[in-house]
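Run Spectrin repeat-containing domain protein through structure prediction, thanks.
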Amino acid sequence: WNALHGKLAAYRRELTAALEVHAFNRDVDDTNERIHEKIAAMRSDDYGRDFATVDALLRKQTALERDMSAIHQKLIAHDKDAQNILAKKPPLKHTILDSLKKLEESWKELSQAAELRNECLDKSYKLHKYIDQVKKAEQWAAQLRNKMTSYQTPKTSAEAEQLIAQHAERRAEIDGRQDELHILHEEGQRLIAEQPEHKPEVQRAHKRVQNSEHQLRQTWEAEKASLQRTLEWLQWCDQAAMCER
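Sure, done. The structure for Spectrin repeat-containing domain protein is below.
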């Protein structure tokens, strides 16, 4: 009876240990499933179609990396649990080692996918930020051209002189943007060097900025000449009126 009782006790211990191993492996499988969900998200080929969507994807990436940190803490907990279970020399201990190895490989795969996605998103961010800055420069030039040509024809020389003074301020605004436009040009050259696959797109954007600036300066010169002619005509009219008196 004592021998049988001893065998039953040993069997219960082995059964408990085996159940503990199975529970551990299930937990590891759950974690592994979470990792592969993140891998699928990291392998998305959506890197944004404009600055706003890239910015949204970067925020999503930050959230995914927070999830990765939580998963990494889970991996540390699994390692500790495995050490505790293995110390009891349980049956099926090779399955614990297999589970840990599988988990390590999955984590490595996730880390590599995250690193690659970060690189791709960073490149996309730089490209679309540049394109966005180009659009803003074009909008500024168009708005300023509109301001320079949207005024009522002066009826007196005083009004003409006031418009000429305002027009000179527009020139100061154009000149004040030169450093910003120069930096934009340098950023375009840097992008071409870093992302040669986007060279045509960057060159087209740069050409648009150059054209906008050229048209802006042409408009300024044309309006300056027009306002000057108007002033001279009004001054002549003033002198003629004085002579008549």
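The chain has a mean pLDDT of 91.
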